[in-house]
Amino acid sequence: MNKYDFVGESFSINDAAAKATGAMKFASDINLYRELHLKLILSEAGHALIKNIDSSEAEKVGGYRAILSYKDYRGKKFNSYRTFPDQPDCPEDRYIFTDKARFVGDIIAVVACETKAAAERAARLVKVEYEELPVMASPAESLRDGAAPIHEGGNLIEEFERVREGKQFATGTEEAFRVTTDIRTQKMNHVAMETHSYLADWNAQDGVTIWTPTQGIYGIRTVVADMLDLPYSKVRVVKVPMGGSFGGKQEFIYEPLVAFVAKKLERPVKLHLTRRESMIATINRTDCATKITTAFDAGGRILSCEVDNLVDSGAYCSSGLDFAHAVSGKIPRLYRCPLYRHRGRVCYSNSPIAGGMRGWGSPEIMTALELHMDDAARKLRTDPVELRLKNVVEAGDVDICNGISLGNAQIKRCLREGAEAFRWKERFAAPHGQGRFRRGVGIACGAHKNGIFSGSPDLSGMTLSMNEDGTVNLRTSVHDVGCGTVRSMQIILAEVLRMDPDLIFVTEGDTKFTPYDCGTYGSRTTYVAGACAKETAEKFKELMLRTASKLLGIPASSLTLRDGRVAVTDATAGGISYRELAARAINELSTEMILTNSYKSDSNPGSYAVNFAEAEVDTLTGLVKITDFLSVNDIGQAINRQMVFNQIGGGVQMAAGFALCEDLGINSKGVPTKDSLKKYNTLNAVDMPAVKAILVEEGGDKGPFGAKSIGEISTVPGAAAIVNAVNNALGTSIRELPLTPERIVEAFRLIKG
Fold first, then answer.
1. Which residues pair with 208 in a beta bridge?
2. Tell me, what's the pLDDT at 74?
3. Model confidence at 13: pLDDT above 80
4. Does 3.30.365.10 match the CATH number of domain 284-450+603-752?
């Protein structure tokens, strides 16, 4: 039985009707007076010097206004991932336009015209002369002796080693066996429904205004102001509705470009990327090569774990360095490690830029880890569930990498309840079949975080006010990325303020009007911003009670909030409605019902998930059908229950694509061979089973009402569970993703001899 009135119930997202009817206005739907349309000139070479840009034919197109390139911008470099001033692990290695193309999709120039059609026509007429350079499309090529430098200083961005001891987990027993696994994961695209779109305007008085479906308005302000040498007060960033992101709109690649062009031409400008441009010229999931070696005692308990992880950052560093450091601390959040060693390397290559994508390193490293744990279970001849139960962290454990409590970690409960619901022991022991079709089951665990503490400041601010009609306004810089964040904030406020969520109106990010927030990423929205919303509402509740006390002449201690009224605690009548409260506060007390609050997170517990998958494999064609899937999630407390289930379903589908088919397909020339929806394979709804989900809601952490994150953890263990199911069905040990039909057929052929 739900102990709350609003929290934990199911609500439709606040903008569902607008999206369903087509009434929602996205960035590409916004038109500015006298706006110019921009079209990118992107490199078709993987690595080359730009010798000449011939725009003579383009300039003849009606409506042509300008072409801008590296010749027009000689300012500062930037890092598209940087959010804070002087942020570490963010080498600034990129200009708005380049005179040296470092990947297919690098930005050479932009054409500005009066219409979109004219811009597209003019761009096709621009001729770029290249001086080809050696292409190093993979880390193996870029790190070989004598490889040409992609940037000054060489192709290895950084190499580091981290050693941590968890002495409290020591078993006192001797090593019985050791397991080593090599895993490779691929570059994949976010494939959000909405491609990237941007608008910018400039005037001398106000500076530059940027409209963008971003995940972090204040990070954009920081980068743009620093690049254009503008006061922060002269850069306004407005978040507009977003048609999906999954991390793809976290980084600030084109906001500096449109801001510069608007300022240079003194005209409003609009840039709308095609699907191909969004796929190759923004960011993609980082591809990683990971080697894991783990020592176990005779009972199957981990004694030590050694990891060698190579991160391909692509043509620019972007978030690659921070990503590698983040990955280095993830394994001890899932398993107890008496000794943990992590060697990390980050390198450049002539391939599309790597960046944030749902899970921020957890799908990559957890997939490698969970394939490795299945290898260990086979070597030990034990049940994969039992091996994991012996080694997963427990509630109250401390993360040995940063000294922060993992909180009320319920991964063991997830394992036990999931194994029982999935009938794991029975299905794991069942025959796989001997004919063309083989069936197997797989399990994988996953761990993720709740916010960016302690790696970065984790701050959220909100302003809450009450209108004279009793409705409430929340001004926040939290961004709804399409999954119902605004509705979650409404539910949290409604629970505290005891009012209808639909009477609470939320203003998303606008640097001119909404308080500071780090951004919507890193699984911090519900845990950190939601906690800020709850704390802000609680302080506002006290303001309401104090104000009502003055108006009614009743001690605040004798008042409470109930059904849109400030009521007398022990009475069924009396009190004052919210409408009366707000109006009388202005008329009689000359005070506005308004409060601004800043919240600083000081914790980062673990979110956990366990996934169970059953897969049927066609040994002739290599095609895989997921026949059953169970996701068990330790989320503390659901805020909007239906939204949680929706996130799990979407997360599993993304994980399945990661496991089976999604890949940009970078060839030896650095060319993405799957740069369209026609070529890029995703799992569609018809390919997916009905995903079953179990929620473990024990609370106990500092999120609102005990809630933890769900958006990213929902996609973390799924790929490994599916790969383990395929290997279980076939008796193979495929360790390179995705499991294309070709790889499956070849692996099965090899074991059959």
1. 202, 235
2. 84
3. yes
4. yes
